[in-house]
Specification:
It contains 16 helices and seven strands. It has 370 residues and is of the alpha/beta class. The structure holds adenosine-5'-diphosphate and magnesium ion.
Length: 370
């Protein structure tokens, strides 16, 4: 049998696997109607070439913040009266400095000659272009992950005819910004509450319809996954598990996703890892791997190894990162008395499960209190 024959014989249970991608935006977003209205409200004035609102969207991860904004932006793109409104969608985790954010907004406006300009000059250029347009929607997703906040000052002060939408997982975000920014930042705040289990079930059921052929899910397999997502109050966890359970069922040549496939998916993805792998930067992941390799050693040894595998930061920075990883619970730093250069720490790797277990426990406690 050739590869082609093999592939064409294979019957898939996925009718549209794209519907399980993290970027997929469903046609309808149940349970977020009011929140979408708030987003529309912040953007609407732009259609009349007036200044739009500032919106701060808060809520924990997997509650539909990003997808709700994207959904409204889709609608905006399809609105004829909004033809000349530019959308600048920036993820501040990957685009994490004021300069990079300036470049990204300029690019969204079709301006690419940013090489010889500094941040302030790029924002002047942005202003010039927006003045000739209907307006601009600037979305700053994961805004709490940015390294500096000068860009907020520029956006607020320099860009005309704008709607500014900021999204954050951190409930307290904003209170530490410097006064220069805080005095210009007066957003309406929309808090995305966590979904109830019932809501999570209906959202996941909808996603199953989008992504799988009919009758490919046994009820208890589906319920298992709903349980997990509800435990974490996180739809993203549920969608990842739908995908992975589907793949496991296919590998098993099963025409249906059965309970054992769901259970397999849950233990395989180590459910805790689902979220934690998203919540570390590339640098942190590198350092974590170094800690794993050098568990039980002193920082000095660890630093040598870190350099040998391509790490580029100073020993001081490494120490700072280790402290922050220790706070997250994935490693332990134990002080040892002896070292030649005085006290030094011994690093013990605990693993990604450690954070998630503690998060998990926190949530369970919270549930009991509620
Ligand atoms: N109301 C909803 N209807 C359909 N899918 C949803 C809904 N809320 C969240 N999702 C899905 O759950 C996942 C996580 O949502 P997302 O917007 O990325 O969360 P957040 O930005 O709050 O972390 C995405 O795949 C998204 O499509
Ligand atoms: Mg998001």
């Amino acid at each position: 049998m050739t590869m082609n024959e093999f592939l064409s014989r294979e019957e898939s249970i996925f009718s549209n696997p794209d519907a399980l991608d993290p970027d997929f935006v469903p046609k309808v977003l149940p349970h977020r109607e009011d929140e979408q209205k708030e987003i529309i409200y912040a953007i609407k004035p732009l259609i009349k070439s007036r200044s739009g609102g500032q919106l701060l969207i808060k809520g924990q991860s997997g509650v539909g913040k990003t997808v709700s904004v994207k959904k409204v932006l889709r609608e905006l793109e399809e609105t004829e009266e909004a033809d000349d409104i530019t959308i600048a969608f920036v993820n501040c985790w990957t685009t994490n400095t004021s300069y990079k954010i300036a470049v990204s907004i300029a690019n969204s406006l079709g301006f690419r000659f940013t090489q010889n300009l500094n941040t302030s000059e790029i924002f002047d250029k942005i202003k010039e272009i927006v003045l000739q347009r209907q307006g601009i929607v600037v979305v700053l997703d994961e805004v709490d992950k940015a390294d500096d906040y000068d860009f907020l000052y520029y956006i607020l002060e320099v860009i005309p005819k704008k709607s500014l939408i900021m999204i954050t997982n951190e409930m307290q975000w904003g209170s530490n910004l410097d006064l220069r920014i805080r005095s210009r930042l007066m957003p309406s705040v929309v808090e995305f509450k966590t979904y109830s289990k019932l809501e999570i079930r209906s959202i996941l059921a909808q996603r199953v319809k989008y992504a799988f052929y009919e009758n490919t899910w046994s009820e208890d397999a589906f319920e298992n996954i709903v349980d997990m997502a509800a435990k974490y109050h996180d739809v993203r966890v549920g969608i990842k598990l739908l995908k992975s359970a589907g793949e496991i069922a296919e590998r098993d040549s099963s025409k249906k996703v059965m309970k054992k496939h769901a259970e397999d998916a849950i233990s395989k993805t180590e459910n805790f890892k689902i979220k934690s792998s998203d919540s570390f930067t590339e640098e942190e992941k590198l350092i974590l791997n170094v800690c794993k390799e050098c568990s039980g050693q002193r920082i000095g040894k660890l630093y040598d190894y870190y350099l040998s595998v391509g790490g580029g930061k100073s020993e001081k920075t490494l120490k700072r990162k280790l402290e922050s990883l220790a706070k997250k619970g994935v490693i332990d730093l134990e002080l040892s008395g002896e070292g030649l250069r005085g006290k030094s720490s011994i690093i013990k790797y605990r693993g990604l499960e450690a954070t998630k277990l503690s998060d998990f426990e926190k949530k369970e406690k919270k549930e009991k209190q509620d």
